[in-house]
Amino acid sequence: MEYEFMTADTPLPPCMPFPKALAGLPISSTAKVMYCQMLDAMLTKEMEDENGILFVYFPVKELAVALSRCEMTVKRSLNELESAGLIMRVKQRGFAEINRIYILIPKI
Fold first, then answer.
1. CB-CB contact of 38 with 58 (8 Å)
2. Which end of the chain is more exposed for a tag (fewer CB within 10 A), N or C?
3. Predicted confidence (pLDDT) per residue in 11-43, tens digit
């Protein structure tokens, strides 16, 4: 096996943000990774609502694929994040509209 050591000049591979406040929260590791995945998608896509607040569309099926988890686990983790005050899901009016997910900043 070959190894490559990091130096100060080594470029990092693409990374997702992981707020330090998540480390100490009593939520599952799946919920933590999901939060980071959605945060990264929100910052990358930069979708704003009518008030200039960033949000993300992330259907359960897409989250399940992105996290390599079943849809039931994704739904449970979304509920965990919402209960912990880390996301807010807002239902859109109209048939077949996808819910907006607002990523909230964890309080330290």
1. yes
2. N
3. 888 888 899 999 989 999 999 999 999 999 999
